[in-house]
Amino acid sequence: MAMVSTYCPQFNGLRRSCPKLDNAQPQSFLQHINSQLRLSSSRKPCRAVIAMAGSGKFFVGGNWKCNGTKDSITKLVSDLNSAKLETDVDVVVAPPFVYLDQVNATLTDRIEVSAQNSWIGKGGAFTGEISVEQLKDIGCKWVILGHSERRHVIGEDDQFIGKKAAYALNEGLGVIACIGELLEEREAGKTFDVCFQQLKSFADVVPSWDNIVIAYEPVWAIGTGKVATPQQAQEVHVAVRDWLKKNVSEEVASKTRIIYGGSVNGSNCVELAKQEDIDGFLVGGASLKGPEFATIVNSVISKRVAA
Ligand code: PGA
C-alpha cells in the first residue's frame, strides 16, 4: 500500500508531475509493479489532482469593462446564478462601478465582486474617482489594476499603478495586477523586459503578495480575437514565475496565481488551461455571456489528471 501511495503525483521542484503521463520516462520495474497494483485495486477509485506548477487555486475573473445596462446585467447575473461552476475555482466578476452594488446584492456568494479601478489613496476632493474604502463599503473584494486599457488608453504609468496597488492591498482588497507587452514590443523581442519591468514596479511597493493575482495579458491579444497560443502564454507564465522566484521568493512564486487574459473564450480555454503555469484567466468579451463564462471557469477540469 505504501508503494502505491508513493507512485503519483510527485513534486519536482515547483512542478507537480505525474510520471505515468510522461512518455519520455521509461517505467522502472518497480513503477510497473506499482501500476499493476493500482489497476488491480479496483475498489479504490483514482483520485484527481490538478496538474499545475503553482500551488494556488485556479482563478477566473470576468472583466465586464464599460459594458452593460441595468437590464442586461440583471440577465447576466441570473445566468451566473444558475450556472454550475466547479468548486475548485475562485470566481470573480468586475462590473462597471455604477452596477457594482446591484451585482453584489443579487449575485450568488459563490462569485466575488471586483472593481475595475480604484484611487491611489483615501477619498476626498478627487472628482470622478472611487476610493478603496467606498469599494469595501459596498462589499467589493478585489480591484483590477494596471489593465492595458488604463495604461495605454488612459495613460496610467507604472508608478501611479504601483501606488494604487499598495494602497488597495494595505486596505485589504485583493489586486488583480495586469502586465503585458504591446505588439511592437513583442516583435522587438522585448516581451520579457516589459513584463519584468511592470512586475518590478508592483514588487517595489506592495506590502505582501498574499492578495495578488498576476494577469498576463498581451496587449495585442486583448479584444482582438487573436489569442496567444498556449505555448506563447506558457512561455511568459514560466518566465514570470521564475522572476518571482528570483526576485521575491520561492514561496511567492509557487503560491501566486498567474492568469492569462486576451481573447479567451469557450473554445480556446481548454488548451490554454492545460498549460502547467496557467492558473486561470481574466476574460473580457466572453465574460458577458453567462454560459460561456461558466465554460471557461469549468476548464479547470482539463487540468485534472488521475493520481
Ligand atoms: P478580452 O479582454 O477577453 O475581451 O480580450 C481581456 C481583458 O482585457 O481582460
TrEMBL record:
Gene behind this protein: LOC111297660
Keyword entries, A-Z: Isomerase
Quaternary structure and interacting proteins, as annotated: Homodimer.
Pathway(s) annotated for this protein in UniProt: Carbohydrate biosynthesis
Chain ranges passing through the membrane: none
UniProt protein name: Triosephosphate isomerase, chloroplastic-like isoform X3
UniProt-listed SUPFAM superfamilies: Triosephosphate isomerase (TIM)
Lineage, broadest ranks: Eukaryota, Viridiplantae, Streptophyta, Embryophyta, Tracheophyta
Family (UniProt): Belongs to the triosephosphate isomerase family.
Species of the source: Durio zibethinus (Durian)
GO annotation, cellular component aspect: cytosol
Family matches, as Pfam families: TIM (PF00121)
Biological process terms in GO annotation: gluconeogenesis; glyceraldehyde-3-phosphate biosynthetic process; glycerol catabolic process; glycolytic process
Molecular-function annotations in GO: triose-phosphate isomerase activity
